[in-house]
Amino acid sequence: MKNKFLKGLVASVALAVSGLANAGLITFTPSGTSTVSQGTDLYWDMLSDATSTSSLGSVGEFLLTGHGDFHFNNAVADMVNIGTGTGGYLFSLGEMIGASSNWSNTDFFVGTTDYAGIMSFGESGIFGLSFQLAGQTHYGWVNISENDSGTQSILGWGYESVAGRAIAAGVTDVPEPTTLAVFALGLMGLASRKFKKHA
Q1: Is there a domain that residue 72 lies in?
Q2: Rounded distance, CA 49 to CA 51, Å?
Q3: Does 178 fall in a domain?
């Protein structure tokens, strides 16, 4: 009896720990308009794959306007910036976005391209965002491309569904159970079979 309990406990812990890294990660690619020319506004909803050139009216709505400035449809949304009065901070793939990031909820100072001089034509960048959902802060990211043609595209976005948990910039997939966890379960199965034959 002791062996069965111990094996069950080890299996449960191995599987539970193996999937914790990005268990609350929710990502989207645009289902509608995702490329706009200068002077056209582009809205996207952090909670779905919706994009539009007019307001979506959602809690997680952000707006890319004036070809380079972010605006937020509610007072409880922020973007990570470089410093006071400067543009958005470009994150490297996998860099963490969370409570310790340099946040600015002032629309006027939060720019990505033309106004902040952050990106050049032909480049894309990942920017950190946060918004309130049911009164709790959720962290996310958006990947924006400054195209050679002078247009901008939103390539995708994601957010952490667990309130207050940091998110890795640009990461789009949840890992499967680790090789070690699967290997451990296999060994336990073989050991169990061997013990049954000897009994």
Answers
A1: yes
A2: 7
A3: yes
Kindly report the pTM of this predicted structure.
0.71
Q: How many domains would you assign to the chain?
A: 1
Average pLDDT across the chain, whole number: 74
CA distance 140 to 158: 5
pLDDT band at 97 (very low <50, low <70, confident <90, very high): very high
Model pLDDT for residues 120-177, shown as the tens digit of each residue: 778 888 888 888 888 899 999 989 888 877 788 889 999 999 999 999 999 987 555 5
- Cα 103 versus chain centre, distance: 16
Tell me whether residue 120 is in a domain. Answer: yes
Is the per-residue pLDDT at 113 higher than 60?
Answer: no
Mean pLDDT of 16-20: 48
Where is pLDDT greater, at 13 or 69? 69
- CB pairs under 8 A, 24+ apart, for 18-23? 18/175, 18/177, 18/178, 18/180, 18/181, 19/174, 19/175, 19/176, 19/177, 21/174, 21/175, 22/168, 22/171, 22/173, 22/174, 22/175, 23/162, 23/174
The mean pLDDT value for 42-57 works out to 88
Spatial distance between the Cα atoms of 1 and 197, rounded to a whole number of angstroms: 17
Name the amino acid, one letter, at 148.
Answer: D
Range of the domain at 130: 22-198
13: which DSSP letter?
Answer: H
